[in-house]
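Format notes (please read before filing issues)

Several people have asked whether sequences and structure tokens are stored in separate files. They are not. Every record keeps both together, in the order shown below: the sequence lines, then the token lines. Line labels are part of the format and must not be stripped during preprocessing.
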Amino acid sequence: MATYIAEVRDLRGKAKKEKIEANSPEQARVILQNRYPTVGNVKKAFSLNFNWEEINASLSKLTIRDKAVFSRQFAAMVNAGVALVRCLGVLTEQCPNPKLKKALIAISREVQEGTNLSEAMRKHPKCFDNLYVSMVQAGEVGGVLDEVLNRLAKLLEDMARLKNQIKSAMAYPVVVGILAILVFLGMTIFLIPIFAAIFKDLGTELPALTQFMVNLSEMLRDPLKVSIVAAVIFGIVFGIRTYYKTPMGRVQIDRFLLKMPLFGDLNEKSAVARFCRIFGTLTRSGVPILQSLDIVRDTSGNQVIANAVEAAKLEIQNGGMISLALQKEQVFPLLAIQMMSIGEETGELDSMMMKVADFYEDEVEQAVKALTSIIEPLMMVVLAVMVGVILLSMYLPLFKVFDTLG
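Then the structure lines:
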């Protein structure tokens, strides 16, 4: 309940302000009209009290793993014959994620009032996206909600596993890269100036490499120059992000991500696995094929893939085949296209999609391992080169001094 302040007049006509707690301004006005003959403006009272639950819910993050665990528990309870409202109540009580818990409280309330589960979930897109809602809706229509929830849990678990594999593989190179930058900056900012002062006292002419490192050290120790460099970098990043928001920029950058060295093959295989897994799960759960394509397009995460899916949708509407449409766009590997074509010819497209997803998820795992085996020694070499350049720039003038003394 909120606190409201109203302007009222008593029986003597004396004006004053009355404070009251109510659920809405209208309710506050009705209550006050029973007490005073005249009720004027009613407004919400200013308060500094913070709703920490709301703040915690807004700041918390809902992961794919959280949604997978929720789906698995929900499916088990529905399969056991527990009433839907009771399921939501139990899951709300034991939900550890504040954002999901807040959404479940609202969903449970709407379901009790007679709203369909999918429609109630649709009002909380931050927790339940279009993919999730469409599958739940298909489960409600077909009377197989528990089966659909299990498929959802399996889908989310596979997506989380694939994402975690890529993250874990990239963790070591990222740590080594950050360490290399910190070592380079530390030696450049703090070590090179000491040697620069010694060389200046000796009056030695500095080699080009040493002079470059001395100039770089001076620049890094100058706040104004560092600010200018930071502003340039920020401008470049901002420009790229702004260009990415344009239709042409999004297509060009996403196409580059699919063809870029080292990571392009991994991105392409991940996109194929994700497309096939989501599409196969949707069609197997009873979602209409055109609606499935819309969902896959919106959840692809890559505009080139999304355009290819949209072309496939138009091809199907005109009586064509998905595999031919995707082949025209030249986005997916030929092996994936051929397997999709076989699935369409045999009438088992959903099963073939799941097999393609399994195959390319294994390919992603192998690609991640191969990429890691390449990047790890490469990062060590980069670190050694960076340190070596600094040491060489400091010792080259010493060698020249020794030659002069000799």
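For reference, the curators noted about this record: The longest strand covers residues 2-9. The beta strands are 2-9, 15-22, 38-44.
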